[in-house]
Write a structure and sequence with these properties.
By secondary structure, this protein is of the alpha+beta class. It has one domain: Jelly Rolls (Sandwich), CATH 2.60.120. About 20% of the residues lie in helices and about 40% in strands. The protein has 2 helices and 11 strands. The strands form 2 sheets. Strands 1, 3, 4, 6, 9 and 11 form a 6-stranded antiparallel sheet that branches. A 5-stranded antiparallel sheet has the order 2-5-10-7-8, with no helix packed on it. Strand 7 and strand 8 form a beta hairpin. The two termini are about 15 Å apart.
Length: about 190
């Protein structure tokens, strides 16, 4: 392979790589703390906070002591997506609730449809990953800490490793890929003419 063929191939490969889109890592950029809204439903006192470096989100379910408020309450940390993306994240869950994880489930919702990630009936720490969750522009993604009674102890969940990869190439990426492809085709045509 001569230098020209190598250069053309490398240009095309770079263009194709850019076309695939780059992932937004952690809770930064389009997914920074200021882009999210926290909702506490039904008078609960749960919290949600993104770390200063944007690496993690911590959700704590509602818990009242002394035991004066027996209410179901949710904490939602939500964002309305501005483009089509594929989201992945890791989560680690623990609970101090006397009823175990059944009293304070954790999960996520898309457009209000809840998907529980924590397993009911456990007093042990739990963890897992969600990979390749396909979302669309205008969808509302929420991380949710529920509490069935808001007493007997709270749960804490840490979300980390959050990435959002554009599902469709942005115009600049597509243009770069086309330029790379054009250079490759032009090089091949010149070679055939000789």
């Amino acid at each position: 392979m001569n230098f020209r063929t190598f250069a053309l191939s490398a240009t095309a490969l770079i263009g194709m790589t850019v076309m695939m889109g780059s992932a937004q890592a952690a809770f930064t950029g389009d997914y920074a703390a200021g882009q999210w809204t926290t909702y506490v439903v039904n008078g609960g006192n749960g919290t949600a906070a993104i770390s200063a470096d944007g690496a993690t989100l911590t959700l704590t379910s509602s818990n009242f002591e002394p035991f004066t408020n027996l209410i179901a309450s949710d904490v939602l940390h939500s964002i309305t997506l501005q483009k089509d993306v594929t989201v992945s994240f890791d989560w680690a869950y623990s609970t101090a609730d006397e009823n175990g994880s059944s009293g304070d489930p954790f999960g996520y919702s898309v457009n209000g449809v809840f998907t529980q990630l924590s397993q009911d009936g456990s007093y042990d720490a739990q963890s897992g990953s969600v990979a390749k969750l396909v979302l669309h522009s205008g969808d509302v993604l929420s991380f949710v800490a529920k509490s069935t009674d808001s007493i007997w102890g709270a749960s804490t969940t840490t979300v980390s490793g959050f990435t959002a990869t554009p599902a469709v190439p942005e115009p600049e990426s597509a243009a770069m890929a086309l330029v790379g492809l054009g250079v490759l085709v032009a090089g091949l045509r010149r070679r055939q003419v000789r």
